[in-house]
Amino acid sequence: MKQSSNFKSSFEGLSDLISILLGPGGCPWDKEQSFSDLKRYFLEESCELLEAIDLEDSENIKEELGDVVFNLCFMMHVAENIFQFGSEDVFSDLIHKIIKRHPHVFEKNQNVEIDQVLSNWDKIKSQEKGSKSILGTSAPISLSSLANSFTLQEKASRFGFDWDQINDVEDKLTEEFQELKNAENDFEKELEIGDVFFSMVNLSRWHNVDPEASLRKANRRFNERLIEVERLCGERQIEIESLSNELRDNLWIEAKNNIEG
Hints:
Elements: H1 11-22, H2 28-31, H3 35-54, H4 58-83, H5 87-100, H6 103-106, H7 114-129, H8 145-158, H9 166-181, H10 186-206, H11 211-235, H12 245-260
Helix pairs in contact: 1-4, 3-4, 8-10, 9-10, 11-12
């Protein structure tokens, strides 16, 4: 029997749509998806959303937000089948948690500084998790090391573990570069490169720059220039593998000017 294709433009409508996809006469592929499968798709869609945000592409942001919400709603349905909790349970727990972590709004109703809001959030979260350490509650291990470092330093700074001024951060980075130059073996080099990365993340934090987003953009620029160099070589019938250093540098500058111009 043909299914209805009329659904509300809301989370409820999306949930009804997924119920049909997973129900009798629904999609056989959708019915086969497990949490392990959905994990990969959710990560892919989340990264596509981040890329759209980096590009400030409103149409793409709208589309990718939809894909992320679809994956979340789909996972709620799968969870209901496997763990016997549904979307109402998810939203109930979420709303309770958010209210509890905003006592300045729902209990005391007082004006507080942003830093105080964040430190209160950390304390309440630590109590909820039964952790003896506020600072030790770091970001998920599945988060990239770069993003994890940023989160860790940001949290530490809220409790006073920070430099007094940006010049101190810059001096520390210079010091770490010098220690890297003085490293005598692979083990020391690995440690010092880690310290350089850590200091660079700290510097980006002081400049209010997200290091993960910054590196994503740098990767994208580099890749675009590589593709343009390859195009220029093809246009001029030059073998890219046989470029001299001088010609490679000239083509790179031309490619950079073509893209940025």
